[in-house]
Amino acid sequence: MATPTTGSTPGSARSSTPGSARSSTSGTTSAPTIAQIAREVGVSVPTVSKVLNGRSDVAPATRSRVEEALERHQYRRRRPGTKHAGAGAVDLVFHQLGSPWAMEIIQGVEATLCEARTSLVLSELGGEHRPTRAWLDATLARPPLGVLLVASRLTDTQQHQLASRSIPFVVIDTDGEPPPDVPTVGSDNWTGGLAATRHLVELGHRRIAAISGPADMLCSRARIDGYRSALEAGGIAFDPALVDAGNFYVEPGYLAARRQLTLPDPPTAIFAGSDMQAFGVLKAVQELGLRVPDDVSIVGYDDLPLAQWTAPALTTVRQPLREMASAATRMLLALAAGTPPAMTRVNLGTDLIVRESTAPPRTAR
Predict the structure, then answer these.
(1) Is CATH 1.10.3720.10 what the domain over 21-72 is classified as, yes or no?
(2) 19-22, long-range: CB within 8 Å, 24+ apart, which pairs?
(3) pLDDT tens digits for 205-240?
(4) Using CA atoms, how far apart are residues 211 and 256, in angstroms rounded to an integer?
(5) pTM of the predicted model as reported, rounded to 2 decimal places
(6) How far apart are CA 241 and CA 267, in angstroms?
């Protein structure tokens, strides 16, 4: 991985004006300093500097008064596309690192940044989907060329603080429905859930379980909506007892499958919301003395490189993770160069990859 570019810490804004501003009273060109702005608003020079730098430690009412004064005087901030001193790295922010899924995203981002001769910095939020104040302060202190957020969302205040420093951001695989002006890149999760379940229905399965990710994540809800739509189209009643929610890692898949497969009327097929969950399902099936696909068919989601090496090889929905990461990185680099993207919402297609872990149920053979 490339070493991050280092440079001087921006600190507070200098009192000299970076450009001219037109006075709203005289109609002549003038160059107000932040000291003059501070006197007019009745705050200290460091407070104005903090607002200009996007710092979070300014009271909302004070920030609003300073922003109004800056707008009134048409105070020229750094133009979009102008690099910060020492900037050159993109900050890639995960809620949690360490999974093969995250590695696919990292490789897609890094490959695109290498072409642009730009380095990469990795950040982790400790499992949270909302960046903390500590992360924001550290980011503003660098600052990076831009920020890529994976399955995370900024607050309105955080968006404003990044924008005030001309730090663009793009969200990959958003965890919720973002505002229309937030650039996002994802995939068609509803169609993926539909295709996975329809494949099982067409094989003849009627007891089909599902394991989803966190219920508050948009992709989880979309995949389960696709699952329910495929059941309905196949004339199969939705049974909430066959659906479990967790996260996208191995253990929740294992625990959910243990519960589902020991029901009085167990499923003959399981749709897992991620390949990692599917790996847990495989272990549960083996521990219970069952066989895949003879007793239980399994479909995963993501098509991680490991999916083709399981025994049996995993049928799964291919989510184009590297392509998503590359598209988001190109979008971010365009924004950093001052070029608005042609589209701010990109959803890439998914494909069902049929391997050895699915077959008709015994009753249909």
Answers:
(1) no
(2) 19/76, 20/76, 21/73, 21/74, 21/75, 21/76, 22/74
(3) 999 999 998 888 888 999 999 999 999 999 999 999
(4) 7
(5) 0.74
(6) 10
